[in-house]
Amino acid sequence: MRILIFAALLASTTLQAKVLATVDGTPVTSEQLEQTLRSSPFATQYPSLDADEQTVLRRDLLQRLVQAEVLYQEARRLGLEEDETVRRDVAEFETGLLAQKYLQYLHDRIEIPAPKQADWRRRLGTDLDALAAVRSVYIADRYRQAKAAALARLRRKYGDLPETGLLARGAREAEIDVSAQVAGFRRERLIQRLLERKEKEWMPDETTLRDYYQRHPEIGRVPERRHIGQIVVADRDTAQALRRRILQGESLFRLAKQYSIDPYGRQHAGDMGWLPEGSAMPAIEKALTTLKDGEISEVIETPRGFHLVTIIERKPGEQKPFAAIGDRVRRALLLERMPAWLREVTARHRIAWSGAP
């Protein structure tokens, strides 16, 4: 499993960027923080947060940027820039990116002659969809021709290389610069390679994972799931009265739709859906542990009101074997080992905080 680390591709700093922290003298700037925020899953929610929530989010993202820089510096300290896997992956990334950029370069150079455009307008008039269609067909046809001609020329010059390699040569001839993207990928791959090696050290084989599972069988436990019905009212007397009516044959669900003060329960006529064992409030959970299917509980008091609950049906819990949850065991072991290792790595590097995020 790849360990997911929040690491942005760091943009070049400008003179206006404020240094927020340094790691071994390498700055982490406000510009990098803004770029990370814009590309994060929280970007669309950020404007709706209050000032304190925005500060907390920015502080968390800055911590993650600093942690990524620490890991990058650690990878360099260990000489992973010379790691054969890293070098191969970076080379493949650069070749693929150059090929992609060269194809875009060929596409962008296609021009539609003015007489041809005038002829289309004369024949098609104001039909914009038809005009767009003929332009698209023309460009696609010229692009195929341009690509075939470029490959033929490059093959004559460089020999029988794979197509991607030939296109990459064409990009270099055209002086297409992908150095910033390659540097970003190299940085990200170095961090990833560092984590891969640490994972291999912690989990050299499946036996390690099986032993860990034996020591932590709770990882494989699937709790019982219960389909719950519920009424919540504001006072005990009302709850007792409703319980008597249910015991006399009235439907808990019809009564919940009429009387429940819980908005969700009222909307869904008391059907609370499937809930895993242990997810209810303590008082309700205690009642559910001894309640039989279809039985109505005694009145249960919680801070939200006075409850009557029933179990409509249940799915028994089970203990999953290691073979079914190997990835889950791996994640659990990583989560256990990772914090201490990160503290150890961080202690090896000089971190200085320069300003608020």
UniProtKB/TrEMBL annotation:
The keyword rRNA-binding does not apply. InterPro entries: PPIase_dom_sf, PPIase_PpiC, PrsA_foldase, Trigger_fact/SurA_dom_sf. Keywords: Isomerase, Rotamase, Signal. It catalyses: [protein]-peptidylproline (omega=180) = [protein]-peptidylproline (omega=0). SUPFAM superfamilies: FKBP-like, Triger factor/SurA peptide-binding domain-like. Its EC number is 5.2.1.8. One of its GO terms (molecular function) is peptidyl-prolyl cis-trans isomerase activity. Residues 1-17 form the signal peptide. The keyword Signal applies. Pfam families: Rotamase_2, SurA_N_3. This is peptidylprolyl isomerase. It is an enzyme of class 5 (isomerase). It comes from Methylomarinovum caldicuralii. Gene3D superfamilies: 1.10.8.1040, 3.10.50.40. Residues 223-313 form the PpiC domain. Belongs to the PpiC/parvulin rotamase family.
